[in-house]
Design goal:
This protein has 270 residues and is α/β, with parallel strands linked by helices. It folds into 2 domains: 10-161, no CATH class; 166-269, no CATH class. Helices cover 43% and strands 16% of the residues. The chain contains 10 helices and 10 strands. The longest helix is centred in the middle third of the chain and has 21 residues, at 82-102.
């Protein structure tokens, strides 16, 4: 990652507030861009839920064994989201918080407000102090680290680092190619259900029935041909496609990464 084989500092993401994949990636990529800017090494111990989708070394054999390699086991052992919640609790209280207490003087906290990192902004006083001292490790704790300038500046390096598996890319490419042979416009629709049904009283939850109304409004507003348009549904719950009536609708049945690729391959995302 740096200009030589022995980077002068290592950044460890110790906890990221247990967000889901997209939120974790925003945080992870922002810190990664910061490390590229500073020529630091990066390890993300909090990425155990999604590490299996990427070819990124954990950098700590014990963390790899206790959390990354056991996550799938807990998911298979406990039904639904219980496996994920159990793993979150095990990691947070069994590792992240004890480490936070032990490494208190080396923690940069990103839990209360957004912390912008270089090159977006100059390092805040606490981070600047850790950059300049003799210790080799800086710990990032929280999910509110952002680096808008860094994401643009190091875009190619980020794309290379976070490459999706070839199998996922090939599967999605085949799926999208088949649809493009039949339709002119592909519209990806993401319906988040499981947690949004209850999060803040369900204020952000959009039902499949409401989504169907939005899809028809999209066609009308942009004057798109209904017969030339296909809506691709990605969701973390069951969706009754009959509520979309005579619209052209298909359901993506991929995993998290495959659904992200499907949405990214669409012309528009609702």
């Amino acid at each position: 990652m740096g200009s030589n084989n022995s980077p002068k500092k290592t950044v460890v993401i110790l906890w990221d507030q247990a967000g889901q994949l997209a939120n974790e990636l925003w945080n992870y990529m922002s810190v990664f861009a910061y490390c590229l800017e500073k020529r630091y090494e990066l390890k993300n111990y909090a990425f155990y839920k999604y590490g299996r989708f990427f070819n990124i070394p954990v950098g700590n054999p014990l963390v790899d064994y206790l959390y990354f390699k056991t996550f799938s086991f807990y998911q298979s052992l406990l039904p639904g989201r219980l496996g994920r919640h159990f793993s979150d609790l095990l990691y947070r209280y069994g590792f992240a918080q004890p480490m936070k207490r032990i490494k208190k003087s080396r923690i940069v906290n990103g839990t209360e407000c957004v912390k912008y990192l270089p090159p977006t902004r100059k390092s805040e006083p606490m981070l600047r102090h850790l950059e300049q001292d003799i210790s080799k490790v800086i710990y990032f704790y929280g999910g509110l680290f952002r680096n808008t300038v860094g994401l643009e500046k190091y875009r190619q390096g980020i794309l290379h680092y976070f490459q999706y598996p070839k199998s996922a890319r090939a599967k999605v490419q085949g799926f999208i190619t088949s649809l493009r042979s039949r339709y002119r416009y592909l519209v990806g629709i993401h319906i988040r259900q499981t947690d949004y049904r209850v999060y803040r009283g369900g204020r952000y939850y959009v039902t499949p029935q409401e989504t169907a109304v939005i899809a028809r409004q999209y066609l009308k507003y942009l004057k798109r041909s209904q017969t030339e348009t296909c809506f691709i549904i990605c969701s973390d719950g069951a969706v009754d496609l009959q509520c979309f009536g005579d619209l052209n609708v298909v359901r993506s049945h991929g995993n998290l990464i495959e659904d992200l690729l499907v949405l990214a391959s669409s012309d528009v995302i609702l």
